[in-house]
Design brief:
heterodimer; A: 219 residues; alpha+beta; Cyclin A, domain 1; SH3 type barrels; 2 domains; 6 strands; globular; B: 215 residues; mainly alpha; Nitrile Hydratase, Chain A; two-stranded parallel ribbon
């Protein structure tokens, strides 16, 4: 979706402000928001793509004026309500008012190291050969789906070149919406800066995105 | 306005335990208490998750990978061919590093990594991303004005150096192998790792010159 998350090429946000010796968290509540988000993800009530979609569904004005862990917190709030794990009135009251719904699993402290080491690999076995190979010229689709996608606006309708063929991966546009994993070949597609941004672009610039096969047509 | 007056009034007379907390602190606290009460999360697991990324996983891991690549040509080749497997040789695996790609800077080309759509970042080798990496200024400009961004990090590359930006739009996670600084011949891996900054592995910095580090 063309939400507040799709920032590539926007202007006017001002300079990047690196912070010297930055700590991982800037306040105790950020720690809890981080841990809560991962722990709730471990219940299996949703997947990574669903959670990204929940965050990008925050209205753009609100998304852009929320801090990072505020966005994560709002994402979890949306997901627990969408999945029926928490009632909206419970969020308003700040207390549990109804019995819990079943979840697939609850992450225990002793299982955290193994769960993190396992991660969530998204590669799947190929069902058919890749349509494209390194060096092929491709055109990215022009599309504006209302749901989740990982093809940013700045890279739609652009001609580029396949650089890497990564294998077959879970397709977020389907997986975010309960439509199954629909695994597809994934490629790194490189574009010249001028093809993306016009004549004023840095002549040395090359930008790539990682694109699933259904985002691409032969050029 | 009436509601405002009421709120003020309310505030003065109900000095509950959270009254000195900000709205977001109250919000996160409320969410945690609901989820714990319903049995969906174990607060002790949250503690371990926090502790892991606050104390165990960080850019020193990535610095060891880069130092090994600088020191051991066979490892460098493995890293460029299959970064996930090569990095696993050093014990760095798992969440947000399941599918790694290493990209090597050369005298002619400088690599830089961004996630314009969210905050994708290789956790096992770099830890959690810094605020600037997740911020709108970086995510918006890294792909359209990378030299301007680099200037804000104090990095000024020759005009002829090509800039290669990797937008992490999928589950591939990118690690930049910075150029090995001059004057480091004979350094062991530990000494080399001391020159490898987090930003040099994102591509918004360069590895430190040996003079910059106390021996």
């Amino acid at each position: 979706m063309n939400g507040g998350q799709d920032l590539g090429g926007m202007q006017g946000f001002g300079p990047v402000r690196p912070e010297a010796d930055e700590p991982p968290f800037h306040a105790p509540w950020e720690r809890r928001a981080f841990g809560l988000t991962l722990a709730m993800g471990a219940t299996g009530a949703w997947n990574l793509d669903t959670s990204r979609h929940a965050r990008e569904s925050i209205p753009p004005g609100e998304y852009l004026t929320s801090t990072y862990y505020e966005i994560w917190t709002k994402g979890v709030e949306r997901l627990v309500v969408q999945t029926g794990l928490v009632a909206p009135e419970e969020l308003r009251a700040g207390a549990a008012l109804t019995p819990p719904a079943p979840v697939k699993r609850v992450l225990k402290a002793a299982d955290v190291p193994a769960a993190l080491a396992r991660g969530g690999p998204c590669a799947r076995a190929p069902a058919h050969p890749a349509r494209f190979s390194a060096g092929d010229r491709v055109l990215t689709r022009i599309m504006n789906p209302r749901g989740h996608t990982r093809l940013p606006r700045y890279a739609r309708g652009k001609t580029g070149t396949i650089e890497l063929v990564h294998g077959v991966f879970v397709f977020p546009d389907a997986n975010a919406h309960g439509a199954g994993e629909d695994p597809q070949w994934l490629y790194t597609v490189r574009f010249s800066g001028r093809d993306l941004w016009g004549e004023e672009a840095d002549p040395t610039l090359v930008v790539s995105v990682d694109a699933w096969e259904s985002y691409l047509e032969p050029a | 306005m009436g509601a405002h007056h009421h709120d003020d009034h309310d505030h003065h007379h109900h000095d509950h335990e959270g009254s000195d907390l900000s709205p977001v602190e109250l919000r996160v606290r409320a969410l945690e208490s609901i989820l714990v009460e319903k049995g969906y999360v174990d607060p002790a697991a949250i503690d371990v998750l926090i502790e892991t990324y606050e104390t165990r996983v960080g850019p020193r891991n990535g610095a060891r990978v880069v130092a090994r690549a600088w020191s051991d040509p066979a490892f460098r080749d493995r890293l460029l061919r299959d970064a996930t497997a090569a990095i696993a040789e050093l014990g760095f695996t798992g969440r947000q590093g399941e599918h790694m790609v290493a990209v090597e800077n050369t005298a002619d080309e400088h690599n830089m990594v961004v996630c314009t759509l969210c905050s994708c970042y290789p956790w096992p080798v770099l830890g959690l991303p810094p605020v600037w990496y997740k911020s709108a200024p970086y995510r918006s400009r890294a792909v359209i004005d990378p030299r301007g961004v680099l200037a804000e990090f104090g990095v000024d590359l020759p005009a002829a150096t090509r800039i290669r930006v990797w937008d992490s739009t999928a589950e591939m996670r990118y690690l930049v192998i910075p150029l090995r600084p001059a004057g480091t011949e004979g350094f062991d891996e530990e000494r080399l790792a001391g020159l490898v900054t987090r930003d040099s592995m994102i591509g918004t910095g360069l590895a430190l010159a040996p003079e910059a580090v106390a021996s």
